[in-house]
């Protein structure tokens, strides 16, 4: 049976690792937070007291961590994955981190004889719990093939995005587009309201016209037209503004490094930065409609 070490049992990692247990993988979990480890043990997982113990017998190491700096330390640190994982193990980092760090850690992994993919996700805690995440995977075709059966119980869509770091690139490009389209959709509703246009009437027209987009028809920022959206639940996340801002900052950092011109991405980052600075980082990102109207 494939042995998996799962490092980072937080909001995303805990439900993801539970789905691996349900799929009968032999999973050993590790997190710095004792309550997270205890929750994993309650779900039937084995636990380890240190990264070294978690990874020493593992065929696959999966990480779900907050930032690039933490990913680097977990893989490259003295007591970390590179120093203690089995030769030839497959390493999968599903954290959302900057492209440059993902490529750097992956190159070091390959130099040490491991296969490694970056495999960030979209779908949030709901998708992690339901096992319906979308994985965007960067790495060699061979590493992707090895990763697919491990990712399958946690996701409904697993796409090979190309070479190392391209999973992270796909993730931040998608989320930059999402931020821009959500702000655009919100501006259109706010202008329509100011001109006396009814929300539902505008929705019915635009959703069948050239303004149609996911932010309008699946995640509509006004209450009413799409019943299950955060707009109908006082803008409780969903996808919190602080998390959108994290992804936008990664996108802007990557754009700077690659010399790509992304003026609307930059403006979107500024708008979400202001919303966060006003104390609304915990509000769903579609709440930007109220922020823009000065009503949040
Ligand atoms: P989280 O903060 O809830 O979980 C991260 C976990 O990592 C925590 O339990 C923390 O204790 C643990 N950790 C930190 N340093 C560690 C170390 N050195 N060793 C072991 N464990 C360590 O975060 P999350 O919401 O689960 O997000 C994880 C990643 O997934 C992030 O990169 C985030 O951007 C990405 N993501 C999150 C969502 C979401 O909706 N929450 C959606 C998509 C992607």
Automatic annotation (TrEMBL):
Q: Does the keyword Chaperone apply?
A: no
Q: What class of enzyme is it?
A: oxidoreductase
User: Does the record bear Transferase in its keywords?
Assistant: no
Q: What Enzyme Commission number(s) appear in the record?
A: 1.1.1.31
List the keywords (alphabetical): Branched-chain amino acid catabolism, NAD, Oxidoreductase
Catalytic residues, chain numbering: 171
Please report the name of this protein according to its UniProt entry: 3-hydroxyisobutyrate dehydrogenase
Identify the species of origin.
Gimibacter soli
This protein's gene is called mmsB
